[in-house]
């Protein structure tokens, strides 16, 4: 009598949790992603999310720059501490605080919107190209067992984008505390990269049950990749390639985790 027993049914579940996450290191995923990124098809794929994010940024600036600045100016006029700081700086013969603060806040609101749009486009439309590229070369043995991949990907992109936008706006006042500006930016972009890309990296190949196991057991690795991408995101030149490069890193990490999960299955005779 033959039975298929997965690792989750064994007492070695903890062993796989540690070994499975460590079987393919984050560093290895980045190394493979760098090699894949140099392929002509992946270099060309960089253009799509970048151009969409660029067009989105220009449209947002054209449509919302003036109304947003007017609204922020009206709100700032009701902030007592801003008015006191403004009066003190003018009395000292310095520059007007509001003249510089309001445009900076407006940019801090509009640019992340275009950025998350580019990331969502990469997750939904570019990730299938990425998966097709890497699976043909390094993961031929990983069969596609995913279901409703497009619907899952679109829904994931929508809720992550909305959560990112809401969290970014709600925590924006905390940027007035100097260390929080960088810390919050890193956290929210790490959240966006991690939550957006990890699902799309395996949704076409992993069954729903496998996807749940991989996300649970490799949560730390997915977040580590998101944190590194978020730190790279602080460098403006990286904005051009990050949507596709992050997709490649998550694809390599996720597919390798799925490959290890399936290899870990034990057949008892």
Specify the biggest β-sheet. Answer: 2 strands, antiparallel
- What is the 3D shape? elongated
The proportion of residues forming helix, as a percent range, comes to over 70%
Q: Gap between N and C termini, in Å?
A: 6 Å
Report strand order across the widest sheet. 1-2
Helix count, DSSP H or I runs of 4 or more residues: 11
Q: What is the total domain count?
A: 2
Pfam family, one: EI24
Subcellular location: Membrane
InterPro entries: CysZ/EI24 (IPR059112)
Transmembrane segments: 42-65, 100-131, 152-170, 176-193, 221-251
Layout of helices and strands:
Elements: E1 3-5, H1 13-23, H2 26-37, H3 40-45, H4 47-76, H5 80-91, H6 97-138, H7 149-171, H8 178-202, H9 208-217, H10 219-232, H11 242-263, E2 266-268
Could you explain how this protein is built, in words?
It is a single chain. This protein is mainly alpha-helical. It has two domains: 27-136, no CATH class; 146-264, no CATH class. It is 77% helix and 2% strand. It has eleven helices and two strands, in the order βαααααααααααβ. The protein has a two-stranded antiparallel sheet with strand order 1-2. The longest helix has 42 residues, at 97-138. The model is unreliable at 1-11 and 14-24 (pLDDT under 50). It is found in: Membrane. It is a multi-pass membrane protein. InterPro entries: CysZ/EI24.
